[in-house]
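Input C-alpha cells:
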C-alpha cells in the first residue's frame, strides 16, 4: 500500500481488545469522539480518516477496497491480530466490507445506520452546494456558512461540513475532503458490491435511527445473507446522525455490543 491513513491511537493497556472507529462521508476521525471516550475505558481504540477525508491522502479513485486496505494496514502496523470495527454510514460500509474480505481480522461489527446495499444517489444537493462555495472569497467559516445556506437549509448539516474547512499556512481556505474526487467516484460510495458468496459469521449489531430510512425492511434479506448472526437495535427519536442526537444512548449500545462479543 502506497499510503497510510491518518489516525490516532488511544491505548488502554497492552492486553485490552482493540476497536477501530470509522466515520462517514465528508467526516473525519473527530466525528465519533462521543464513542471513543467511553470505549477507551475498556478497549484500545484506533480512530482514522478514510481516504479522501480529514488528513488522510487524496487518492486517484475512492473505493471500498482502498478503505479495507487502509484499515488492515493499520491493524498490521500495531500488530493487532483482530479488532472490533464500528462504523457510521460510509464508515459502516467500510467496516462491513473489511469483515467480508478479511473476516479473520474482525472480532465483531457494529454498523450504525447503513445497510450492505446499493443506495440511489442522494448527496447531489450537498455536492452542488459545496461546489458553489467560492473559497477565494472566504475570510472565515461564517463566510462559508453564508454561501452554503442557499443550497443547504439545515444548520446542523452545514456545521458538520464546515468542520472540514481549514486555513492553510498561506492563509487560504480549503476543504480537507477531496470534493472533486468524492463526487466523481460517488458510485463507489453509494453502491455496495459484496464479494461473491461472501459471508461474515461473527457477531454483528446494526444500530438504526428510528426516524432514518437508511435501513429498511427490504434490506433484511441482504443483511441476513451476508451477516447471518446480525442483531438490530433502534434508537427512537433519532435520524441518520443518531450518535450526535443521542450520544449516551448510542455509546451504551455500542459498548454493550462489543463487550458481549468478546
Amino acid at each position: 500500500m502506497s499510503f497510510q491513513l491518518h489516525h490516532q491511537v488511544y491505548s488502554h493497556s497492552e492486553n485490552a481488545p482493540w476497536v477501530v472507529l470509522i466515520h462517514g462521508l465528508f467526516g473525519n476521525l473527530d466525528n465519533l469522539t462521543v464513542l471513543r471516550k467511553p470505549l477507551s475505558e475498556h478497549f484500545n481504540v484506533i480512530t482514522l480518516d478514510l481516504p479522501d477525508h480529514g488528513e488522510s491522502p487524496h487518492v486517484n479513485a475512492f473505493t471500498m477496497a482502498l478503505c479495507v486496505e487502509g484499515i488492515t494496514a493499520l491493524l498490521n502496523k500495531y500488530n493487532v491480530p483482530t479488532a472490533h470495527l464500528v462504523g457510521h454510514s460510509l464508515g459502516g460500509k467500510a467496516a462491513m466490507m473489511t469483515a467480508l474480505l478479511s473476516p479473520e481480522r474482525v472480532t465483531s461489527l457494529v454498523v450504525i445506520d447503513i445497510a450492505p446495499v446499493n443506495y440511489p444517489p442522494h448527496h447531489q444537493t450537498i455536492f452542488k452546494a459545496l461546489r458553489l462555495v467560492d473559497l477565494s472569497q472566504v475570510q472565515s467559516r461564517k463566510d462559508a456558512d453564508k454561501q452554503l445556506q442557499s443550497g443547504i437549509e439545515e444548520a446542523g448539516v452545514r456545521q458538520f461540513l464546515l468542520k472540514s474547512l481549514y486555513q492553510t499556512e498561506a492563509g487560504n481556505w480549503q476543504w480537507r475532503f477531496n470534493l472533486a474526487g468524492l463526487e466523481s467516484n460517488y458510485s463507489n460510495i453509494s453502491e455496495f458490491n459484496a464479494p461473491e458468496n461472501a459471508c461474515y459469521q461473527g457477531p454483528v449489531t446494526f444500530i438504526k435511527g428510528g426516524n432514518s430510512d437508511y435501513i429498511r425492511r427490504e434490506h433484511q434479506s441482504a443483511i441476513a445473507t451476508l451477516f447471518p448472526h446480525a442483531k438490530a437495535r433502534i434508537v427512537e427519536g433519532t435520524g441518520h446522525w443518531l450518535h450526535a442526537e443521542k450520544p449516551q444512548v448510542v455509546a451504551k449500545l455500542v459498548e454493550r455490543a462489543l463487550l458481549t462479543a468478546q
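The first strand starts at residue 7 and ends at 10. The beta strands are 7-10, 18-22, 44-48, 83-88, 106-112, 165-167, 173-175, 204-209, 230-235.
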